[in-house]
Protein backbone atom coordinates (compact mmCIF):
# COMPACT_ATOMS: atom_id res chain seq x y z
CA UNK A 1 0.00 0.00 0.00
CA UNK A 2 1.40 3.42 -0.99
CA UNK A 3 0.37 6.84 0.22
CA UNK A 4 0.39 9.26 -2.71
CA UNK A 5 1.27 12.88 -2.10
CA UNK A 6 -0.79 15.13 -4.39
CA UNK A 7 -0.28 18.87 -4.83
CA UNK A 8 -3.52 20.65 -5.78
CA UNK A 9 -3.50 23.99 -7.61
CA UNK A 10 -7.13 25.22 -7.90
CA UNK A 11 -6.01 28.36 -9.73
CA UNK A 12 -8.25 31.10 -11.07
CA UNK A 13 -11.71 31.78 -12.51
CA UNK A 14 -13.76 28.58 -12.55
CA UNK A 15 -10.73 26.61 -11.41
CA UNK A 16 -11.57 26.52 -7.68
CA UNK A 17 -15.15 25.37 -8.37
CA UNK A 18 -14.00 22.59 -10.69
CA UNK A 19 -11.36 21.54 -8.17
CA UNK A 20 -13.91 21.49 -5.34
CA UNK A 21 -16.19 19.26 -7.41
CA UNK A 22 -13.27 16.98 -8.19
CA UNK A 23 -12.30 16.79 -4.52
CA UNK A 24 -15.85 15.58 -3.84
CA UNK A 25 -15.48 12.64 -6.23
CA UNK A 26 -11.91 11.89 -5.14
CA UNK A 27 -13.01 11.78 -1.51
CA UNK A 28 -15.77 9.35 -2.49
CA UNK A 29 -13.47 7.05 -4.44
CA UNK A 30 -10.92 7.07 -1.61
CA UNK A 31 -13.68 6.13 0.84
CA UNK A 32 -14.78 3.23 -1.36
CA UNK A 33 -11.32 1.96 -2.33
CA UNK A 34 -9.42 0.14 0.42
CA UNK A 35 -5.71 0.65 -0.06
CA UNK A 36 -5.98 3.95 -1.94
CA UNK A 37 -4.54 6.83 0.07
CA UNK A 38 -4.18 10.32 -1.40
CA UNK A 39 -2.63 12.98 0.78
CA UNK A 40 -3.86 16.12 -0.97
CA UNK A 41 -2.52 19.59 -0.19
CA UNK A 42 -4.04 22.66 -1.83
CA UNK A 43 -1.93 25.69 -2.75
CA UNK A 44 -2.67 29.13 -4.14
CA UNK A 45 -1.00 29.86 -7.45
CA UNK A 46 -1.79 31.87 -10.54
CA UNK A 47 -3.23 35.23 -11.52
CA UNK A 48 -5.27 36.00 -8.40
CA UNK A 49 -2.22 35.29 -6.26
CA UNK A 50 -0.14 37.55 -8.50
CA UNK A 51 -2.69 40.33 -8.10
CA UNK A 52 -2.49 39.98 -4.32
CA UNK A 53 1.21 39.32 -3.79
CA UNK A 54 3.17 39.85 -7.01
CA UNK A 55 3.95 36.11 -7.27
CA UNK A 56 2.35 33.44 -9.44
CA UNK A 57 4.12 30.34 -8.13
CA UNK A 58 5.92 30.84 -4.81
CA UNK A 59 9.11 28.87 -4.25
CA UNK A 60 7.57 26.79 -1.47
CA UNK A 61 4.64 25.81 -3.72
CA UNK A 62 6.97 24.82 -6.54
CA UNK A 63 9.05 22.79 -4.09
CA UNK A 64 5.95 20.90 -2.92
CA UNK A 65 4.94 20.22 -6.53
CA UNK A 66 8.37 18.75 -7.25
CA UNK A 67 8.31 16.71 -4.03
CA UNK A 68 4.79 15.34 -4.66
CA UNK A 69 3.90 12.17 -6.55
CA UNK A 70 1.61 14.15 -8.87
CA UNK A 71 0.18 17.62 -9.39
CA UNK A 72 -3.51 18.23 -10.14
CA UNK A 73 -4.19 21.70 -11.48
CA UNK A 74 -7.56 23.19 -12.38
CA UNK A 75 -7.18 26.37 -14.44
CA UNK A 76 -4.66 29.22 -14.33
CA UNK A 77 -4.71 32.79 -15.61
CA UNK A 78 -6.99 35.82 -15.99
CA UNK A 79 -6.98 38.06 -19.06
CA UNK A 80 -6.96 41.27 -17.03
CA UNK A 81 -4.05 40.25 -14.78
CA UNK A 82 -0.79 40.91 -16.60
CA UNK A 83 2.87 41.55 -16.07
CA UNK A 84 4.13 45.13 -16.52
CA UNK A 85 5.13 44.28 -20.11
CA UNK A 86 1.48 43.47 -20.93
CA UNK A 87 1.79 39.67 -21.15
CA UNK A 88 -0.50 37.32 -19.25
CA UNK A 89 0.93 35.53 -16.23
CA UNK A 90 -0.30 32.04 -17.13
CA UNK A 91 2.19 31.11 -19.88
CA UNK A 92 5.26 32.09 -17.86
CA UNK A 93 4.07 30.23 -14.78
CA UNK A 94 3.15 27.07 -16.68
CA UNK A 95 6.39 26.97 -18.68
CA UNK A 96 8.33 27.29 -15.43
CA UNK A 97 6.32 24.54 -13.75
CA UNK A 98 6.70 22.19 -16.72
CA UNK A 99 10.44 22.72 -16.85
CA UNK A 100 10.82 22.19 -13.10
CA UNK A 101 8.89 18.91 -13.34
CA UNK A 102 10.58 17.94 -16.65
CA UNK A 103 7.25 16.74 -18.05
CA UNK A 104 8.25 15.99 -21.62
CA UNK A 105 5.05 14.44 -23.02
CA UNK A 106 1.68 16.22 -23.06
CA UNK A 107 -1.24 13.80 -23.35
CA UNK A 108 -4.66 14.79 -24.69
CA UNK A 109 -7.18 11.93 -24.91
CA UNK A 110 -9.92 12.43 -27.50
CA UNK A 111 -12.71 10.02 -26.60
CA UNK A 112 -16.39 10.15 -27.47
CA UNK A 113 -18.46 8.96 -24.53
CA UNK A 114 -22.05 7.78 -25.03
CA UNK A 115 -24.35 10.72 -24.44
CA UNK A 116 -21.71 13.36 -25.18
CA UNK A 117 -22.56 15.79 -27.99
CA UNK A 118 -20.71 15.22 -31.26
CA UNK A 119 -20.54 17.49 -34.29
CA UNK A 120 -20.13 14.57 -36.70
CA UNK A 121 -23.19 12.92 -38.23
CA UNK A 122 -21.33 9.63 -38.54
CA UNK A 123 -19.08 8.49 -35.70
CA UNK A 124 -18.28 5.13 -37.31
CA UNK A 125 -17.06 2.52 -34.82
CA UNK A 126 -16.30 5.26 -32.29
CA UNK A 127 -13.72 7.94 -31.53
CA UNK A 128 -10.91 7.10 -29.12
CA UNK A 129 -7.45 8.39 -29.93
CA UNK A 130 -4.73 10.22 -28.00
CA UNK A 131 -2.64 13.19 -29.07
CA UNK A 132 0.88 13.27 -27.64
CA UNK A 133 2.79 16.51 -28.06
CA UNK A 134 6.41 17.07 -27.16
CA UNK A 135 6.08 19.45 -24.24
CA UNK A 136 9.40 21.18 -23.68
CA UNK A 137 10.75 22.14 -27.10
CA UNK A 138 9.42 22.63 -30.62
CA UNK A 139 8.23 26.15 -31.43
CA UNK A 140 7.29 26.69 -27.79
CA UNK A 141 10.97 26.43 -26.83
CA UNK A 142 11.25 29.96 -28.21
CA UNK A 143 8.89 31.27 -25.50
CA UNK A 144 10.34 34.51 -24.16
CA UNK A 145 13.29 34.29 -26.53
CA UNK A 146 12.03 35.41 -29.93
CA UNK A 147 13.41 38.47 -31.66
CA UNK A 148 11.74 41.55 -33.10
CA UNK A 149 13.71 43.95 -35.28
CA UNK A 150 12.02 47.32 -35.39
CA UNK A 151 8.55 47.14 -36.86
CA UNK A 152 9.48 44.99 -39.83
CA UNK A 153 10.74 41.57 -38.75
CA UNK A 154 10.04 39.12 -35.91
CA UNK A 155 11.37 35.59 -35.49
CA UNK A 156 10.91 32.57 -33.25
CA UNK A 157 12.94 29.38 -33.40
CA UNK A 158 11.57 25.83 -33.66
CA UNK A 159 13.86 23.50 -31.71
CA UNK A 160 13.89 19.71 -32.16
CA UNK A 161 16.46 17.54 -30.37
CA UNK A 162 17.12 13.83 -30.62
CA UNK A 163 16.73 13.46 -26.86
CA UNK A 164 13.41 15.29 -26.69
CA UNK A 165 11.94 13.52 -29.72
CA UNK A 166 13.18 10.13 -28.54
CA UNK A 167 11.53 10.59 -25.15
CA UNK A 168 8.15 11.61 -26.51
CA UNK A 169 8.17 8.94 -29.23
CA UNK A 170 9.09 6.20 -26.78
CA UNK A 171 6.34 7.41 -24.44
CA UNK A 172 3.83 7.26 -27.31
CA UNK A 173 4.73 3.66 -28.16
CA UNK A 174 4.55 2.58 -24.53
CA UNK A 175 1.13 4.22 -24.21
CA UNK A 176 -0.07 2.46 -27.36
CA UNK A 177 0.97 -0.85 -25.81
CA UNK A 178 -1.48 -0.25 -22.92
CA UNK A 179 -4.37 0.82 -25.14
CA UNK A 180 -6.92 -1.22 -27.10
CA UNK A 181 -5.86 0.02 -30.52
CA UNK A 182 -7.76 2.16 -33.00
CA UNK A 183 -11.56 1.75 -33.02
CA UNK A 184 -11.76 0.76 -36.70
CA UNK A 185 -9.92 -2.56 -36.33
CA UNK A 186 -8.19 -2.74 -32.94
CA UNK A 187 -4.75 -2.25 -34.48
CA UNK A 188 -2.22 -0.68 -32.12
CA UNK A 189 -0.59 2.16 -34.02
CA UNK A 190 1.48 5.29 -33.42
CA UNK A 191 1.32 7.99 -36.09
CA UNK A 192 3.94 10.71 -36.42
CA UNK A 193 2.31 14.01 -37.42
CA UNK A 194 4.72 16.53 -38.94
CA UNK A 195 5.59 18.74 -41.89
CA UNK A 196 8.69 16.80 -42.90
CA UNK A 197 8.34 17.81 -46.55
CA UNK A 198 9.01 21.47 -45.71
CA UNK A 199 11.03 21.87 -42.50
CA UNK A 200 14.38 20.26 -41.76
CA UNK A 201 13.58 20.27 -38.06
CA UNK A 202 10.42 18.23 -38.63
CA UNK A 203 12.11 15.89 -41.10
CA UNK A 204 14.53 15.23 -38.24
CA UNK A 205 11.58 14.69 -35.88
CA UNK A 206 10.25 12.03 -38.27
CA UNK A 207 13.69 10.42 -38.63
CA UNK A 208 14.07 10.06 -34.87
CA UNK A 209 10.49 8.80 -34.57
CA UNK A 210 11.15 5.91 -36.94
CA UNK A 211 14.42 5.14 -35.13
CA UNK A 212 12.37 4.69 -31.95
CA UNK A 213 9.68 2.73 -33.82
CA UNK A 214 12.25 0.02 -34.58
CA UNK A 215 12.49 -0.64 -30.84
CA UNK A 216 8.73 -1.35 -30.70
CA UNK A 217 8.16 -3.88 -33.52
CA UNK A 218 4.87 -5.07 -32.01
CA UNK A 219 3.30 -1.62 -32.56
CA UNK A 220 2.56 -0.37 -36.08
CA UNK A 221 3.83 3.05 -37.09
CA UNK A 222 3.29 5.55 -39.88
CA UNK A 223 3.59 9.27 -40.59
CA UNK A 224 1.11 11.87 -41.86
CA UNK A 225 1.57 15.55 -42.69
CA UNK A 226 -0.19 17.84 -40.23
CA UNK A 227 -2.43 19.51 -42.82
CA UNK A 228 -3.67 16.13 -44.02
CA UNK A 229 -4.20 14.99 -40.44
CA UNK A 230 -6.49 17.95 -39.75
CA UNK A 231 -8.69 16.62 -42.57
CA UNK A 232 -8.54 12.97 -41.51
CA UNK A 233 -9.49 13.74 -37.91
CA UNK A 234 -12.77 15.16 -39.17
CA UNK A 235 -13.41 12.56 -41.88
CA UNK A 236 -12.27 9.32 -40.23
CA UNK A 237 -11.06 9.83 -36.64
CA UNK A 238 -11.72 6.17 -35.80
CA UNK A 239 -8.68 5.16 -37.88
CA UNK A 240 -6.23 6.60 -35.35
CA UNK A 241 -4.86 5.35 -32.06
CA UNK A 242 -1.89 7.41 -30.78
CA UNK A 243 -0.63 10.52 -32.57
CA UNK A 244 2.74 12.07 -31.66
CA UNK A 245 3.89 15.49 -32.83
CA UNK A 246 5.78 18.71 -32.21
CA UNK A 247 4.43 21.05 -29.54
CA UNK A 248 2.65 23.69 -31.64
CA UNK A 249 0.99 21.16 -33.94
CA UNK A 250 -0.29 19.30 -30.90
CA UNK A 251 -1.61 22.50 -29.36
CA UNK A 252 -3.78 23.06 -32.42
CA UNK A 253 -4.92 19.52 -33.23
CA UNK A 254 -5.79 18.70 -29.62
CA UNK A 255 -8.39 21.48 -29.57
CA UNK A 256 -9.75 20.24 -32.89
CA UNK A 257 -10.04 16.81 -31.29
CA UNK A 258 -11.87 18.21 -28.27
CA UNK A 259 -14.35 19.86 -30.62
CA UNK A 260 -15.23 16.46 -32.05
CA UNK A 261 -16.21 14.92 -28.72
CA UNK A 262 -18.15 17.52 -26.75
CA UNK A 263 -15.78 20.42 -26.24
CA UNK A 264 -13.13 21.45 -23.77
CA UNK A 265 -15.44 20.84 -20.81
CA UNK A 266 -14.94 17.12 -21.44
CA UNK A 267 -11.25 17.37 -22.32
CA UNK A 268 -8.72 16.12 -19.76
CA UNK A 269 -4.98 16.31 -20.14
CA UNK A 270 -1.79 15.09 -18.56
CA UNK A 271 1.83 16.17 -18.81
CA UNK A 272 4.15 13.29 -18.10
CA UNK A 273 7.85 12.99 -17.39
CA UNK A 274 10.09 10.20 -16.22
CA UNK A 275 9.38 11.02 -12.56
CA UNK A 276 6.58 13.58 -12.42
CA UNK A 277 3.03 13.98 -13.68
CA UNK A 278 0.97 17.18 -14.01
CA UNK A 279 -2.75 16.85 -14.78
CA UNK A 280 -5.28 19.52 -15.69
CA UNK A 281 -8.40 20.14 -17.77
CA UNK A 282 -7.84 21.48 -21.26
CA UNK A 283 -10.20 24.44 -20.81
CA UNK A 284 -9.34 27.89 -19.53
CA UNK A 285 -10.44 29.87 -16.50
CA UNK A 286 -13.66 31.35 -18.03
CA UNK A 287 -13.77 34.26 -15.54
CA UNK A 288 -17.21 35.29 -16.82
CA UNK A 289 -18.57 32.06 -15.28
CA UNK A 290 -16.61 32.17 -12.04
CA UNK A 291 -18.64 31.96 -8.84
CA UNK A 292 -21.88 31.07 -10.65
CA UNK A 293 -21.75 27.29 -10.05
CA UNK A 294 -22.32 26.60 -13.75
CA UNK A 295 -18.92 25.37 -14.98
CA UNK A 296 -18.46 21.82 -16.23
CA UNK A 297 -16.07 19.99 -13.85
CA UNK A 298 -15.90 16.78 -15.89
CA UNK A 299 -12.61 17.64 -17.60
CA UNK A 300 -10.98 18.11 -14.19
CA UNK A 301 -12.52 14.86 -12.94
CA UNK A 302 -11.27 12.97 -16.00
CA UNK A 303 -7.84 14.54 -15.49
CA UNK A 304 -7.91 13.17 -11.93
CA UNK A 305 -8.72 9.75 -13.39
CA UNK A 306 -5.70 10.08 -15.69
CA UNK A 307 -3.61 10.96 -12.65
CA UNK A 308 -4.71 7.83 -10.79
CA UNK A 309 -4.03 5.67 -13.84
CA UNK A 310 -0.55 7.15 -14.26
CA UNK A 311 0.23 6.68 -10.56
CA UNK A 312 -0.89 3.07 -10.82
CA UNK A 313 1.23 2.43 -13.88
CA UNK A 314 4.23 4.28 -12.45
CA UNK A 315 4.14 2.41 -9.14
CA UNK A 316 2.75 -0.93 -10.33
CA UNK A 317 -0.35 -0.33 -8.21
CA UNK A 318 -3.48 -2.14 -9.47
CA UNK A 319 -5.59 -0.44 -6.79
CA UNK A 320 -4.92 3.00 -8.27
CA UNK A 321 -5.47 1.71 -11.83
CA UNK A 322 -8.82 0.22 -10.81
CA UNK A 323 -9.83 3.46 -9.06
CA UNK A 324 -8.98 5.40 -12.22
CA UNK A 325 -11.19 3.13 -14.31
CA UNK A 326 -14.09 3.47 -11.87
CA UNK A 327 -13.82 7.25 -11.79
CA UNK A 328 -13.86 7.44 -15.58
CA UNK A 329 -16.79 5.01 -15.70
CA UNK A 330 -18.71 7.15 -13.21
CA UNK A 331 -18.29 10.26 -15.37
CA UNK A 332 -19.29 8.24 -18.45
CA UNK A 333 -22.39 6.91 -16.66
CA UNK A 334 -23.57 10.42 -15.77
CA UNK A 335 -23.02 11.54 -19.37
CA UNK A 336 -24.90 8.57 -20.77
CA UNK A 337 -27.82 9.00 -18.36
CA UNK A 338 -28.17 12.57 -19.59
CA UNK A 339 -30.13 13.81 -16.58
CA UNK A 340 -27.32 15.87 -15.09
CA UNK A 341 -25.26 17.98 -17.45
CA UNK A 342 -24.02 21.56 -17.49
CA UNK A 343 -25.10 24.14 -20.03
CA UNK A 344 -22.00 23.76 -22.26
CA UNK A 345 -23.20 20.27 -23.21
CA UNK A 346 -26.89 21.07 -23.45
CA UNK A 347 -28.13 20.92 -19.87
CA UNK A 348 -29.05 23.20 -16.98
CA UNK A 349 -27.31 21.46 -14.08
CA UNK A 350 -24.84 23.13 -11.75
CA UNK A 351 -21.23 22.29 -11.04
CA UNK A 352 -22.19 20.88 -7.66
CA UNK A 353 -25.01 18.83 -9.25
CA UNK A 354 -22.43 17.12 -11.46
CA UNK A 355 -20.15 16.52 -8.48
CA UNK A 356 -22.94 14.85 -6.54
CA UNK A 357 -24.07 12.76 -9.52
CA UNK A 358 -20.58 11.48 -10.30
CA UNK A 359 -19.89 10.77 -6.64
CA UNK A 360 -23.12 8.76 -6.43
CA UNK A 361 -22.22 6.89 -9.64
CA UNK A 362 -18.88 5.84 -8.18
CA UNK A 363 -20.67 3.57 -5.74
CA UNK A 364 -21.97 1.34 -8.52
CA UNK A 365 -18.79 1.23 -10.60
CA UNK A 366 -16.66 -1.05 -8.45
CA UNK A 367 -18.48 -4.19 -9.55
CA UNK A 368 -18.63 -2.86 -13.12
CA UNK A 369 -14.84 -2.37 -13.22
CA UNK A 370 -14.27 -5.83 -11.78
CA UNK A 371 -16.38 -7.45 -14.48
CA UNK A 372 -14.98 -5.38 -17.38
Describe this structure in words.
It is a single chain. The protein is α/β, with parallel strands linked by helices and 372 residues long. The chain folds into 2 domains: 1-104 and 268-372, Isopropylmalate Dehydrogenase, CATH 3.40.718; 119-260, Isopropylmalate Dehydrogenase (3-Layer(aba) Sandwich), CATH 3.40.718.10. 42% of the residues lie in helices and 18% in strands. It has 12 helices and 12 strands. The protein has helices spanning 15-31, 47-53, 59-67, 89-101, 162-178, 200-213, 226-235, 247-260, 298-314, 318-337, 351-362, 365-371; strands at 3-11, 37-42, 70-75, 105-111, 128-134, 147-149, 153-155, 189-194, 220-225, 242-245, 268-272, 277-281. The protein has a 10-stranded mixed sheet with strand order 2-1-3-12-11-4-5-10-8-9, with helices on both faces. A two-stranded antiparallel sheet has the order 6-7. Strand 8, helix 6 (200-213) and strand 9 form a beta-alpha-beta unit. The longest helix is centred in the last third of the chain and has 20 residues, at 318-337. The model has no long low-confidence stretch (mean pLDDT 95).
Summarize this, please?
With 372 residues, this protein is of the alpha/beta class.
Structural class: alpha/beta
CATH superfamily of the largest domain: Isopropylmalate Dehydrogenase
Estimate the mean pLDDT confidence. Answer: 95
Instruction: Tell me about the largest β-sheet.
Output: 10 strands, mixed
Question: How many β-strand stretches?
Answer: 12
Number of helices: 12
Oligomer: single chain
| Tertiary shape | globular
Strand portion: 15-25%
Q: What integer value in Å does the Rg equal?
A: 20 Å
Calculate the terminal CA-CA distance, rounded to whole Å: 24 Å
Assign a percent range to the helix content: 40-55%
Low-confidence region ranges? none
Can you identify the CATH class of the largest domain?
Answer: Alpha Beta
Predict the CATH topology of the largest domain: Isopropylmalate Dehydrogenase
Provide the succession of SSEs.
Answer: EHEHHEHEEEEHEHEHEHEEHHHH
Amino acid sequence: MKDYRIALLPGDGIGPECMSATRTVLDRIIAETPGLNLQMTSHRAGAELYRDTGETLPDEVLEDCVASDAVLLSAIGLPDVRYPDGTEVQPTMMVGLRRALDVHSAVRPVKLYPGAPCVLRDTGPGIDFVIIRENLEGLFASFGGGAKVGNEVATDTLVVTRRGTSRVADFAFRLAQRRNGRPSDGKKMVTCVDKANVFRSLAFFREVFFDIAKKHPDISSDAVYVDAMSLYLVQNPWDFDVLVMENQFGDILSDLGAGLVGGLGLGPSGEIGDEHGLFQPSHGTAPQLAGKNVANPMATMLSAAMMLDWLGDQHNDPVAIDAAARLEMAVAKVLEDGKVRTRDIGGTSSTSDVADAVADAIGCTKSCAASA
